[in-house]
Sequence to fold (393 residues):
Amino acid sequence: MKSNIYSEIDKLKSVIVHRPGEELNNLTPDFMEELLFDELPYLENAIKEHDYFCDIMRKEGIEVLYLEDLAAESIKDEEVRKQFIEEFLNESGNESANEINLLRDFLNNIRDEKELILKTMAGIRLEEIGIADEEGRLLAVNPMPNLYFTRDPFSFVGNCVSINKMWSKTRNRETLYAKYIFTYNPRFKDIEKIYDRTETTSIEGGDILVLNSECVAVGISQRTQKESVDKFARNLLSKSNFKFVLSFKIPNKREFMHLDTVFTMIDKDVFTVHPLIEGPLAVEKLYLEDNELKRESQKGSLESILSSNLNLDDITIIRCGGTNPIDQMREQWNDGSNTLAIAPNTVIVYDRNNVTNSLLKEADVNIRTIKSGELSRGRGGPRCMSMPFEREM
Fold:
């Protein structure tokens, strides 16, 4: 079965998510910076909020697929399962031969595929493999607490998938599940691949937006390098019917982590934007000519660049946080710009961004609000927590 993603806004039919799990309970203050968290989420409430998010999508007729289920289906074959365990151990960051042997035995003794997948996601405490805590060291393998942001490890674009090379070693382990899903899962194994986790330069899904059937936007950001955008563009344009890629260079800052934290699409001519990127934004158009990647600098305002490249007469920009700089900074930090379109002019948003949500309502956008007390602590919003697999055309 092929993916079908030719826009950000057509009616969503199928989406991949990850329900937060024990990986959040293995996150400690000492490792928050390394594991890319600013606060410790409370798992029980994070699960409730995520379940509510998924229930909203199901009520809209959207098929909700779970990453952990797809990965478990992919390792049912005993040889594939063994291969998965070995790759997981090789990328675990643990360099003790004794502990690797203990970990291998521990994982091989988990016979249920989904339980095994969830344990690899959760992280493994030293006590679980029979080793006493050593000088404050508590974990044999670190958790993957960012996994509920399924947007980043892989990206469906048209009928293709990009298995992304993540910016940090911590998160690059997440792409191992994508490798097995897109190699061994019957529903996904034949999808054309346009990027691979073994590449030397990073690209993350939060920087990839499909603006229409001809144009894909990619952010050059803290997490996505210019070289990666060039590789991605060349592969995509040579293996699909997309005509060009717009590269958006955004400030290399933690709060502007990905393009979709400052810019998302609500309808074919309506966008949310964080106002503080409009001034420093640099845009290039990438296209193939005689099999050579060409680039063309785009001049003018964001509205004029989008209008000319998307063949639209007019563009509506809804600015995150409105006109007040304090509201802008607060609500962008809490992902006010990170909307998930589930149909044209219909988006899922966090409830906490009152100013931005009021502006969306004033613009006659249909919003579905979800709780954000715990989920937002990971610095990602509804778009970050979802990877659309199929939309209507």
Observations:
- The longest helix spans residues 43-59.
- Residues 81 and 298 are 48 Å apart (CA to CA).
